[in-house]
Amino acid sequence: MASESTHGEGAELGRFLRARRTQTSPGHVGLTVGTGIRRTPGLRREELATLAGISIDYYVRLERGKETRPSPAVLDSLARALHMDDQEHQHLRELAARAARYAPQPPPAPSRTVRPHLKLLLESLRPDPAYVISRSMDVPAWNPGGLALYAGLDDWPVTQRNLARYLFLHPAARDLFPDWNRQITGCVARLRAIAGTAPDAPDLTGLVGELVLKSPDFAGLWERYEVTGRKPAQKTFRHPQIGTVTLTSQSLHVEGTPGQRIGVYTAEPGTPDHDALLLLDMTAPRPEHGSSPGAIRRQP
Predict the structure, then answer these.
(1) Contact 14, 109 (CB under 8 A)
(2) Euclidean distance between CA atoms 208 and 239, whole angstroms
(3) What is the distance of C-alpha 288 from the center of its chain?
(4) Quick one: which of 263, 129, 141, 255 has its CA closest to 190?
(5) What's the whole-model pTM score?
(6) What is the SS3 string spanning 39-69?
(7) 35, 110, 161, 256: which is deepest, by most CB within 10 A?
(8) Which is more confidently placed, 297 or 17?
(9) CA 226, chain centre distance (Å)
(10) Are 24 and 82 spatial neighbours (Cβ–Cβ below 8 Å)?
């Protein structure tokens, strides 16, 4: 059983290396390409092995998942040869660390339970839209604006509310985000980074399997194997109720929870964007207390 698990982790390392290799052009790494037709997209295996200073046979074994204990020096050489950024380099190290383990620890059981004090915290953040989000982008709790900001998300049952599922499968998502293509690319890259180091986690495998089957856009991006972390950023919403607003997003890790974070959107007080958030908060539906995991009514 241990050997099968190790081979599986090595295969994930190999998939990542192959994706980066086939998406790296020879010209990008300073190689001169002849006039003949290249059958291989990106770099050839022998070209990458030469750039990294390792044998071709060793690199082939890495990419096929048969070599699971590359040294830190080999990983650093491959990262330099492929011009990986810091996040990709760290992801490569994490995949190699998992591949080297004989008995990987099982992933923690996912949970949609949200502690009551977090629901109170969401309420205290009004009128700023806020919600609790899991590592697989489930949304188990929210304040009124946090749900209403994602137009149409409340059409779905509570257990189906997931921001990745919303981006790819909800018909309102393309209209809500002017930069929808950039949003979905970042979404898949974040899921790829998490799934690469927790490939057996049931919350991730279930979501990925669903989206690969239902969304050709997701399936194509998933195969590219791009990884990135979360960064504070501004995001523009073209909202059907409050018009176009540009908000600053922030994600806060919640200690003592199974990978949960709080997502918050803010705007500078006194600006039209902040006025729009006030309107959204005032007009958002307010379910009766207890009918939704994130709905806590503000007393008049």
Answers:
(1) no
(2) 27
(3) 33
(4) 263
(5) 0.74
(6) CCCCCCHHHHHHHHCCCHHHHHHHHCCCCCC
(7) 161
(8) 17
(9) 10
(10) yes
